[in-house]
């Protein structure tokens, strides 16, 4: 660890903080005579979820996403506790002060001083040729690129009678986002015309996309992201947000061409920047999705008219060679040439979480 630049004593200290806060949550529940089953990440399965009346994730947002991924009963609450607030943002967890005073949160639950928040989730259907609806759990293991590809291939459908399969409803729901793209979009492939000559070819993600059952558009990019209201504060926001420097430069160009007399004060630039970035965010309970393309390539062959926006349904037909559809950064599905994904929200998939009244 030291050779990798990690601080062992610092990591051990964070582990002790996490463990202490987990014990605090468990003890608080047992003091209320609530039966508790404490499970580690690898022990968390469908049987455990069925046993529980409620699921409490103890960690950060990643732990909350993992906990939610196995809950399909829309009436089973999932509650997140941030066990290391100094190192984890915890957007999906209870307010930080309840990390050290969980009994206070329990008393608020008893008194009904909270409201249910139904976080909408995305469901996915996969169909087409050579599809593989078997997920690879990225939480379970750290895989190299080669190992990840091999794991996907091992689960592929081998149906000699029919070349086209589906649609298959995938066994996972996205609380944050779905990302589709080549496994290594920055990878360079080397091709040779002659033994003495080689040239490199950047492998972008190649696919066709249709939104709200509209016409298909052929695109190349670094991948596409479809998020929920919950996920609009996460990766999607960072893909699409603009910096004040960009806004200032655009306003200067507009002022020059239109002879605007508007003074470009720092306050105005910041206000415009904030208003645009705030428009990217929306309520976790709204049954709609935000769709965005990362670094679209536009030329005479590939269009980029569909770059971002709110939609009810997104369909993607893969033309990729080594691509994946990744759900909440934790579950991966093979998504290569011939596969078609339909991405949409069904309100029956909503996740039951809590908002404490302050």
UniProtKB/TrEMBL annotation:
Single GO term (MF):
NAD+ kinase activity
Q: Does the keyword NADP apply?
A: yes
User: What is an annotated GO biological process for this record, any one?
Assistant: NADP+ biosynthetic process
Q: Which Pfam families match?
A: NAD_kinase
What UniProt keywords are attached to this protein's entry? Kinase, NAD, NADP, Transferase
Q: Which GO terms describe its cellular component?
A: mitochondrion
**EC number(s) on file:** 2.7.1.23
- Enzyme class label: transferase
Q: Does the keyword NAD apply?
A: yes
Coiled-coil region = none
- UniProt family annotation: Belongs to the NAD kinase family.
Q: Which PANTHER family match?
A: NAD KINASE 2, MITOCHONDRIAL, PTHR13158
- This chain's protein is named NAD(+) kinase
């Amino acid at each position: 660890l030291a050779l990798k630049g990690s601080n062992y004593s610092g990591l051990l200290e964070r582990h002790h903080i996490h463990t202490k806060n987990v014990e605090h949550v468990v003890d608080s529940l047992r003091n209320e005579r609530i039966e508790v089953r404490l499970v580690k990440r690898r022990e968390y399965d469908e049987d455990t979820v069925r046993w529980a009346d409620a699921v409490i994730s103890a960690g950060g947002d990643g732990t909350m996403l993992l906990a939610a991924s196995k809950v399909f009963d829309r009436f089973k609450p999932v509650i997140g506790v941030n066990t290391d607030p100094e190192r984890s943002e915890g957007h999906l967890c209870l307010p930080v002060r309840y990390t050290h005073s969980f009994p206070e949160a329990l008393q608020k639950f008893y008194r009904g001083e909270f409201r249910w928040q139904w976080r909408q989730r995305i469901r996915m259907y996969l169909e087409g040729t050579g599809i593989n609806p078997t997920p690879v759990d990225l939480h379970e293991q750290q895989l190299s690129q080669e190992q990840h590809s091999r794991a996907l291939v091992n689960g592929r459908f081998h149906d000699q009678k029919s070349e086209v399969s589906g649609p298959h409803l995938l066994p996972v729901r996205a609380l944050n986002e779905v990302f589709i793209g080549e496994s290594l979009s920055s990878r360079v492939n080397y091709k040779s015309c002659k033994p003495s000559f080689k040239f490199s070819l950047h492998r972008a993600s190649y696919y066709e996309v249709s939104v709200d059952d509209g016409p298909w558009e052929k695109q190349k990019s670094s991948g596409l992201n479809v998020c929920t209201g919950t996920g609009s504060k996460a990766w999607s926001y960072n893909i699409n947000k603009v910096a004040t420097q960009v806004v200032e430069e655009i306003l200067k160009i507009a002022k020059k061409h239109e002879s605007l007399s508007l003074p470009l004060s720092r306050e105005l630039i910041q206000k415009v920047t904030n208003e645009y970035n705030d428009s990217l965010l929306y309520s976790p309970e709204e049954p709609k999705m935000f769709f965005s393309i990362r670094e679209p390539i536009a030329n005479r062959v590939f269009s980029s008219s569909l770059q971002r926006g709110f939609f009810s349904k997104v369909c993607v037909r893969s033309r990729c060679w080594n691509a994946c559809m990744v759900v909440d950064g934790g579950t991966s599905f093979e998504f290569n040439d011939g596969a078609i994904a339909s991405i949409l929200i069904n309100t029956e998939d909503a996740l039951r979480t809590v908002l404490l009244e302050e």
